[in-house]
């Protein structure tokens, strides 16, 4: 028996391999649990994970541009003490920076856990006991493009599938009337579509980008609404089409792809109504709307909740167009971004929790890298790949935890270092997938999200 | 059996590496060294202590075990088994006078690993002869099926001598008969014409073409059809797209920072279309894509072929801000991967960081090829004769001169800012504009490659350009050319590389191409992995047929049109796609080809056919690219923009491959979002309206109109049941309270175009 890949399986479904034959092949092949059970024609159908998942859905709040760790979740008293002095070690970042620059923001301990949060995030501070801050993140390159790609796809060049695509490929999605991987960004982040691209995975695993600068439920998904026909007329037309297709199928009995497309047409018909419903924020109560606040990021967080509630597997929310957190000029400008993000993100955690969704929804907050504790110009900070912070919440992680550490001034991760690959391995693990077994054969190699690296950070798992 | 298969493959890898096992029983120790120690030495220490970087601070190098034992000025760096006496361990602990690395202490875990390694006796495989060369048993490696020379096999005997129409059929029938199976009946004439027309041109047959074929009783009626289709320019448009998937053709880059747009990328696309229409011999087709600029000496109008170099000239350019060396290495990898898998069906790229784990490709061979591309640069070459290019350059001189003057003046005036200076700048600007207007229009340019300084690379150890190992002279792969392949000596070596690939003695090139063409005709290759003919690729279902076709393909002057005829005129191709119960059960995925595969149209053919049937298709040929979504874009899809940064949504939705990487075949997925396009998109609704208007104008009553629509869309008469259904629908009444923007005829036309029968070809 030759190796059968999921890709090949998909290709064959299209060329007439019977379902029975396929099931037998996969079962005999001793493939992944996630693949073995796949007898359905639908490559997006929900599939069991490798082992019991702690999280069934992922919401990634992407702080594109790179927030500064020493101004958010990683307090460094030494920076105040040595403000304006030369850094003890000079690490290479994108450009040469000046002397140490203390944070203009004040830190305090919050919650029962006493987690440090700066005054940039008064609302999130109230959720301190939910947050699992990883202070020892590091990545490879201090430029936006490669670092964004690394965070979203585990590789600095645009040649690999995104994490959302991998999760969709591994797990499918629970609601067939909605896309399984949705990306919300008003405008577009730097790099753009490659950040949610499918690369060598089949195109259906690509993220669906929704420009939520202004949400029109009729247009968020391409062609989701019929501008021509009333519901009765369209149903009558669908019935005609179905009859015509069945005449065609009767002469070609047992052809799975033909049957699959007939079903798919009916699913599309239903999707028109369900997909519009999910994007209609007018259906939320006033109290909920107030909890999240206003603006595209607030709307995106609320949409994220509506979507995961309805079975969407992965939602990625970008702070905004371009690279908002990229405060080279004046780090105080972080306050504007924090204002955008703080209330909605905290509302999302509270809302998920109130609905019992937080326990199996994993929320990830963070940028593509951090910023230097040294100054750029007088008041800004440069990119920093050597150390930065992200936080996780919900889906199986320990709340109220600060894991790992950077050096005394917050330049480089030194204790319990967590590379982006390790973060990816951990996220897959929490979603019930073994990052070494979630593979896809392409070009003679079994590729993984974590390439040849990645260690699950077990100490942060509850 | 995937894991079992991998185990077998691993076992094979071990078998071909007997020296490794015999010389080193302590594989565990070596593994430890490779995973925990070598990376640390390479990344943290070699910068100052390596023969390769030429630095030996304190007279210490760490490249070999011997050097570690010998140590530097202060004594042995390592005493195997005794970490307390090993200076290396003392240094990395950072608790004495000696602190290494000097600026930062290594993480505790790393220090612990180094200590453990010394305790283990410091196992170190680096003193062995270069593993790459000694571990491969070349004789054995060349015995693998795809590396063996192509041999024309004897024709097999068959029981049913009446069925075969060609040699190809005898191979197919012999396999079927051996399994106790028999081919299904031949397809009817309408089905066959429809299949062949879609297959060769990506468009449906017209009612006139159908009529002509149905009334041609001559024995070579179908052969005439095939010839007509191969002669039509639509053939090149259709088949170029297949090749462009392999060539990962696109007009931009994935990222948008500081990239010069390839505004004339279309010249490569048009070159491929023209080459196919002209039936350019495939060996020449290959050679020109690698080295057209170096072949012009023999060709009077060689400049026309420069566009062929778009195969590489339009390749990936990555973002090079911080780690430029790595990005440049990634670009070389894009060239090698596309070359290796595209032309040779070999995953050469797997040998970038280590010897290929399954195929006989040492890392050194990878860098031998990488050296060829390292010795080239991206260049825009004018597609005109030299004399014309010179004339153009002369005519442009005043413009350049004025531009230079202006820049100089602007620079000088920047600090002074005098009124007089401002006036002069203004004058010069006006003059420049005038000159630009009278200058000749820009020459057509090919985004191409040109030779730069010829340089051999050293192996990048573990793929790291900062860590260089053995020299890798520019030459061809050893498995395909003998133990010591001759070095490339002419410039970059591109032409020699092209000749080595496009050689009739190369066992892969013809096999790989024949298999690709077979896969594009049948939906599946004789080898199921068209870009991987290595260990992890599939084995051919019909190895003799593959060799027979490859041998005759070369004998027939590497002619693709010969190959198409050979395939289309076979009884195998002309079978019905309706399975019989026995063959369906015995061979469910039709590996033995006892029937034809029903095929789904690719997005290009599907969109083009919608336009053709509605009467809206713009058949104009070649030229600059157009955005697929641009207003009234009715051109064939092959002429639409292909983006690496943001692929058009329709293309992506219908399984068009990601042009950042070479693609060996289209996946086929069926999801509701595709059907939303069918139900609701302005494009699809537009075609429905146009079809309704077309048949409305062409016929006088609904019955005739329905019949006409079936003939246009499906090349067959409507059945009575279908006609009845249509008339009933067309005569239906709408709820007057609903506002509907489409007439019943338009809605009916939309349903007709939305049918499975439109998307799938029997």
Polypeptide structure, described:
The complex is a heterodimer of chains A (462) and B (762). With 462 residues, chain A is an alpha/beta fold. Chain A is built from 13 helices and 17 strands. Chain A is 32% helix and 15% strand. In chain A, strands 1, 4, 5, 6, 7, 8, 11, 12 and 15 form a 9-stranded mixed β-sheet that branches. In chain A, β13 and β14 form a beta hairpin. The two termini of chain A are 42 Å apart. Chain B is mainly α and 762 residues long. Chain B has 33 helices and 8 strands. In chain B, the strands form 4 sheets. In chain B, strands 1-2 form a two-stranded antiparallel ribbon. In chain B, strands 3-4 form a two-stranded antiparallel ribbon. In chain B, a hairpin with a 7-residue loop joins β5 and β6. Mean pLDDT of chain B is 90; it is low at 1-25 and 128-133. The interface between A and B is large, with 98 and 107 residues.
Compact overview of the structure:
With 462 residues, chain A is of the alpha/beta class.
Principal-axis shape of chain A equals: globular
- Shape of chain B from CA axes? globular
Separation of the first and last Cα atoms of chain A: 42 Å
Total domains of chain B, how many?
5
Secondary-structure-derived class of chain B: mainly alpha
Tell me the strand order in the biggest sheet of chain B. 1-2
The Rg value of chain B, from CA coordinates, equals 32 Å
Give the beta-strand count of chain A. 17
